[in-house]
Amino acid sequence: MNQANERLHSVRNRIAEACKNAGRPVASVKLLAVSKRQPAAAIEALYALGQTAFGENLLQEAREKQNEIGLPNLEWHFIGPVQSNKTRALAEHFDWVQSVDREKILRRLAQQRPDHLPPLNICIQVNIDRERQKAGAEPEQVAHLAGRAEECPTLRLRGLMCIPRLTEDVMEARHSFRAMKLLYDELVRAGHALDTLSMGMSGDLELAIEEGSNMIRVGTGLFGARPASRAC
User: Fold this and answer.
1) pLDDT class of 59 with cuts at 50, 70, 90
2) Number of structural domains in the chain
3) How many CA atoms are closer than 13 Å to the CA of 183, on its beta-carbon side?
């Protein structure tokens, strides 16, 4: 078994075990492979093993890989901060944008999504721990953004995403995940047709699944340590 296969097998086993412990079907959790700073060959290796959804944080790097890789049914997610001058490229070349956090970005993505493409799948990024240095909408802003997103026929609101505070305190991490699930459930009860709660990474995917995540974003667990950043 090669290294890519071993890592994918290990992550899938972790997800399956976490789902079993949480009393959930394994099919209820989607795996997003975070391929930031990974070469196109690493993406192709995982694709050959059945992994089709990949997440990128940096637009220029992602576009280079998209131009290099010509594989069918490959699903591209953008999960990094969204700047206004990048929205056209995101609207034209991605299947999902998970890091929408303000109305201006919503409007630009909606206006710039090409007519020949299906609606752009979006998640609202929530700054669930209210960290001043971190992107994301404040929890009390999310319902308003959800309503605005659902008014745009070129967008499809799928759910919420978060990057909780980095901590080794399990109870603190659990509190963040649980707060996200409560917010998600509130929106569903209010009539928003959500199906995605994107939270949890390599180090905490079990806890995230236990607290209700249905999309796990894994980078190092699938690819190993990231290569050093390329020189500009």
Assistant:
1) very high
2) 1
3) 30
